[in-house]
Amino acid sequence: MFHKSLWMQNYKQSKLFVWIIFMILFIHLPLYTMMTLSNWRAREAQPYQYYVSEIHVFNIFSGGFLSILMTGAAVVLAALLVGLERNTRRNDFTFSLPIRRRDMFLAKWLLGAGVIFTFHLLNFLPAFFMFQSSEFSHLLTEYSWLTLYLSPVLSFILVYTFALFIGTIAGEMISQVVLTVIFGLFPIGAWFLFLGFFQSHGGRFIYPLDYNVEQVLTYMSVLTFPFDHMGTGSDVYPFFLIGLGIILFLAAGTLLYERTKVEHNGEFLIFKQLTPVFLIGIVICFSLLGGTIIASLFMGAAPGRIGAFWFGYLVFGFFSYLIAKRLLSMNLTVKNR
């Protein structure tokens, strides 16, 4: 895990994006905080009333565009450390070294998690103290500085850990990114597909039940954490879920990385026994999506909508089967210079 050669190799293949992450955090935390405070002061000087609330604090330190950029950055960083290594077949050499694969995987995780944690802290502190020393400091009473820091940074590390875990299943960089997005949103996405099927066949939306199920599945969707799970000082539930997710995905990723089959580098999946499962899953999901889309175009009688649903289901299912067959059999490797 602490082999110098591993750290040098991991940093070399990801150093450009590592510093892009630093710039994202620098622009959105200290720089954006400075601009926001200046903008608020200018608006207060105007004759009309401008109301600033605690939600604006959330948008600066956790929500908004920062979550979008950092979620994407965490996924891409994981893909550079695992997926790109498979595309270039660089790990054919790495795996021949007298270093345990567990140490290789943990070194990748420590590099990414350390980068996210450290760079976020370095940019968070000046932004927080800038806000704390301003006339808008009363807006921070809802949150402690620890909460404002831990909620987003642990969410980003969770996304990064999950993307690394997916990288142990995917055979190359593009499939790693695609599968991370799909499985990161799968619980809530599958629920919406089910609702589409249910409503296309005459079912009605039951608000309390559907809303509660949706909330539970949102908590189970990894990629929603940077956006929806901002904890307060007395709310430890999001922190528990995030911590549990990091531990589980790190343990599972380490276990699978030790069983990586390098002969399948460049293919969509590393473990070929998963191919039938993915083929069936892809076809069913896209069939349901197609049926829901086509049924939504027919808002008339129930029989018409049901027929439209199954027409879309079969058409999308047929083409998704053909595409999935090609996708799962592809091999994408590039020359490593």
TrEMBL record:
Record protein name field: ABC transporter permease
The organism encoding this protein is Alteribacter lacisalsi
Q: Which residues cross the membrane?
A: 16-35, 55-84, 105-129, 149-170, 177-198, 236-257, 277-302, 308-328
Give UniProt keywords alphabetically: Membrane, Transmembrane, Transmembrane helix
Tell me which InterPro entries the record gives.
ABC-5_transporter, ABC_transptr_acetoin_YtrC/YtrD
